[in-house]
Write a structure and sequence with these properties.
Blueprint (H helix, E strand, L loop, with lengths): L2 E6 L3 H12 L5 E6 L2 H11 L3 E5 L7 H9 L9 E5 L3 H11 L3 E4 L4 H12 L6
Parallel strand pairs: 1-2, 1-3, 3-4, 4-5
Length: 128
């Protein structure tokens, strides 16, 4: 089954890298891309993604506000959200969870680590 990943990222180089990494995965992944926070929120509502990749430094609305808005939408409240940030690791770990994100990946992106993280969030969890 195809999984949908919403990437909210304003940097073309980062967006291209993410798309290439995810295209190389064995799983069927449909990457939809929003260039700013406002269109990201709109696309999240329209697409109902399985995962959101959120750049925290967007040009129109900061990532914290975007994450909070998405979390308030009942049909999206459960969707995993990974912050993509250049913040130092010590800062990022605490802040992204406070923002409502489930995890974070640092910039520059390590392709292997990034692919593993995304696939872990997209993989079905075993039922007990």
């Amino acid at each position: 089954m195809t999984k949908t990943v919403l990437m909210i990222e304003d940097n073309a180089n980062n967006a291209t890298l993410v798309k290439r990494i995810l295209a190389a995965q064995a799983e069927a992944i449909n990457v939809v891309h929003a260039w700013d926070g406002e269109s990201g929120i709109q696309m999240a509502v329209e697409q109902q993604p399985d995962l959101v990749l959120l750049d925290l430094g967007l040009p129109d609305i900061d990532g914290q506000t975007v994450a909070a808005f998405i979390r308030r939408i009942p049909t999206l409240a459960h969707v995993p959200m990974i912050a993509v940030t250049a913040w130092p690791q010590e800062t990022a770990k605490e802040m992204v969870r406070a923002y409502g994100c489930d995890d974070y990946i640092g910039k520059p992106i390590d392709p292997r680590q990034f692919a593993e993280m995304v696939m872990a969030y997209l993989s079905p969890t075993p039922t007990s």
